[in-house]
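Request: Mind sharing a record?
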Amino acid sequence: MTTLDSRILSPRALGALAGLCVAVGGPATALAAPADYYDATEMEAAIDLLDGAAGGRVTVHTIGMTPNGHKTRAIHLSALGPGGVQPDDTGDKPALLVECGMHAREWAGPQNCLLFVQGFVLATLFHPSRVDDILANADIWVLPMVNPDGRDMDDTSGGDPTNFWTSTIFHPATSSDTAGWRDNAQTVDCPAAPGGNGAGIDLNRAFSKGWNSGQSNCLHNQFHGEWPFQAKEARILRRFVNNRMISMSLSVHSFRPCVGAQNGGSGVPQTFQSIWNGAVADPNMQLNYAPGTCSGAGVGQFTAWMARPSDTGFERDHSTKRGAVSMLLELAPNGASYNDPVTLSPYRNALGDGSNPFHPSDDNYLRTVARPFFKSLMYLAEQARSPWCAIDPLTLAPDPSCTQDFGLTGSKIANCEDCVGKMIFKTAGGESYERMPAGKRRVVYRVQNFDSSSAGTVQVTVVISSRPAGSGAYSTDLVNTDVYSLASTAGDTGSVPFAFTAGRDYMVSINTWAISFPGSSDTNGDNGHHLFRFETY
């Protein structure tokens, strides 16, 4: 569509977008009122209304079904391809993933992530050239609510933030369930619980990087599961990432106002914070950035798994690597300012109304957060063209300090360069692992030169090894090397054909190695290696 479809914006969305309009070019008005959030079913319906918006540059995909029957939705923002059709997954540019709602009680993340997409549609009217430039250089994926089953448990009154889960029946080892339900909703084997059953896995502890260091007590609301990826929602996310060319990710949580990153340079979270803080006057709503903090670096977190190799030895995805620039955003307000018993927070509709910082109760909260959230994410969408080298938000020029660096900005195993990958998952024998149908496929990758001024030459080597499924030593099936000469900031996509045989375990390794830069070789090894492991059938 070329104009904004009024069906996209419910009355509650219009209230929040009143604050957002300043960021995208329109007027803003505000009237205080009790907040009313989308519940899981309303969120699903609101997402569906976005399909086909912005002239087809916004499409909605179902990427999985939760155990309780909700659809896991992914919103794709992308330029149109040949014939005016949006590719399923673009292979020729980097992609940003924005993941929201992993913790059920953190209602502000999903609402703001949906508002970001709605604001993006508005921006196609107010700033079409900026939108076109963003989508010409990167794709954007937004997953507004990855834990709808958990949200159903927490949301006891259809989006009313003063009514939420407060029982500790399932997690008596921690009292924080009184602040809301954090986990997913699946039943787990919990011998210490009455009847031997408990409920809930913390999705942000369920991934295979640092999983062994997470909480093993099933009576705790940060229980990491009986094995990595036991939670289906975590498996859906793993399959989504493995099958698409994701080079940056932002995981949205609350409430501890901060932003941080693993991989890449410190300039990106610093600029993100600067843009955010410049768009909101209240110091209680501003972000804090300190290097090495607020990054989600361990204990089975999604952010850690995106950035670092998997290290849970018994899991079949052990040593797999995605190598993305992985960011964490914790939304304001903090607990002290929200719960001040003397001064009524402007984001709390009434003292003693039962709300808390996970569930802000005045709609002034969304109006206030929507603007800095939108402006900061628009910067990150522009940054996605150069995930490993910070760009100037005004000129879009790369940081001059970026030198001598090649890296991968995505990889997948698919039928074609702009096709979605072929990985699925299987759960058996106390673990969950990736599978792929046998047959002719292509190992697709994109390599980019992150040097701010110098051209260079890089080789990309794909090594495919296999063994009989389940055991034995790996043998090398293919070694393929291609060489690319890339100008500063330029990238190129390559693909290697291979016929995968059924009934085997495969490892597919993709490595970059700088052949020439003026004066030295590649200086950043974190982004130069991806690794897949899977079984064929």
About this structure: The radius of gyration is 23 Å. Residues 364-383 form the longest helix (20 residues). The CA atoms of residues 467 and 474 lie 5 Å apart.
